[in-house]
Every structure is written in structure tokens, then in C-alpha cells.
Amino acid sequence: MNPWDVEKKNRENLRDWPFPERRYPSSDNPDHLGPKGLSLTVQGAVASELAGKKNLKILDVGCGQKPFYPFFEPIAGEYIGTDIIERLLS
Length: 90
What we know:
Layout: H1 3-10, H2 20-23, H3 33-49, E1 56-61, H4 69-72, E2 76-82, H5 86-89
Parallel strand pairs: 1-2
């Protein structure tokens, strides 16, 4: 099964999407301002710049393990997340 098919299956379970602490960082975390700022920026950009659009091709570069995929899912026709995995470079 290709990764996009897996993501389609998970659309129904976006509340369970991995890494919610990256999307909604707790103020208990001393480093929460960085992730919170990024999360708010991504949500704001999707809401203001891409509002009303559907079936977009989304390329998320440097996304790690795709923690922000749930923000893009409502507008994505296709979502590709890519990042460098350090252990594969050694």
C-alpha cells in the first residue's frame, strides 16, 4: 500500500494523527513558543491563503513525520511530505 493510500485511510482518524503535541503544544513545555508559532502560522496560512480551495497538490518539504498533515487534509487532493532522515545519510 502506498503512503498516500495510508493517509487516505487515516483521514477519518485525524484526531488520532501522530504528534498532536507539535500541532497543539502545551504551555507546560518550556520550548512551546517555537512549535506554537509554527503551528499558528501554518493554520493561519491555510485558513487565509487557501480558504475555499480543494484538491490542491501539497508538497510539504522538511515536514519530519508530517505532524501538520491534518491542517492540509481538508484542501489536499494529494499530499506529499518529504524530509531528510539523518541516519540514512551516514
